[in-house]
Specification:
With 214 residues, this protein is α+β, with helices and mostly antiparallel strands. Helix content is 28%, strand content 24%.
Length: 214
């Protein structure tokens, strides 16, 4: 079983309280339930979220037109993911939000895609492709050593070279381009700088060896 990291803070605690109030109120997604676990995979290009609800001692999905508001859940998680970014190290990809009607909830994050197992009644989750992961690392770049093996496996399979964080310049570099990186990710408000690889061959050679061996 994959182990996650519990994160906390004012923004997290306030968000969990909003979700708790919204979920268990009359007409809410979890009205009358004992617990909710919300599972989310977030990428720059797309995200996927499902809920498991405990009601009368049985876990399952309640077919309902009710859902969390976009502001309370989806926008909140994206903000938390952005504020969790550490330059060169990255940010999380999946999370679980635990909510209870009579006690505090929690947010658990994972540096991997936590995919749902295939079942007869559900379509198996689709893992991210190389383009999706490329966009993630362009927005929240990592150094070579901080890109996890599961990402490298996808990049190698599709022969895609990922964006890389340059700790000397505090930038992200890809396709002979460069953008500055802030504490919350890449600054896309400026035009990329063009890199001359003949003058800066080192980092690109390292990427090639990491990706293709040699």
């Amino acid at each position: 079983m994959m182990t996650g990291t519990r994160i906390s803070g004012v923004e997290v605690d306030n968000g969990l309280q909003r979700l708790r109030t919204e979920a268990f109120a009359q007409g809410g997604l979890g009205f009358g339930a004992e617990a909710i676990i919300s599972h989310t995979i977030i990428h720059q290009a797309w995200s996927r979220r499902t809920e498991d609800i405990l009601q009368n001692g049985v876990w399952g999905f309640i077919h309902s037109f009710q859902d969390f508001s976009v502001e309370s859940m989806d926008y909140w998680l994206k903000d938390i993911r952005r504020s969790s970014y550490v330059p060169g190290v990255g940010t999380w990809t999946s999370c679980k939000v635990y909510l209870y009607p009579d006690s505090e909830g929690k947010l658990e994050t994972f540096d991997a895609e936590v995919l749902r197992p295939a079942q007869e009644t559900t379509i198996p989750d689709r893992p991210a492709d190389a383009l999706t992961l490329f966009q993630d690392l362009k927005a929240f770049p990592r150094t070579l050593d901080n890109i996890p093996q599961w990402m490298w496996t996808v990049f190698r399979a599709e022969s895609v070279t990922p964006p890389i964080y340059n700790p000397q310049l505090n930038t992200v570099e890809w396709d002979n381009k460069r953008l500055p990186v802030t504490e919350n990710g890449t600054d896309f408000s400026v035009e990329p700088e063009i890199i001359d690889p003949s003058k800066e061959p080192g980092v690109f050679a390292k990427i090639g060896r990491k990706l293709f061996g040699g």
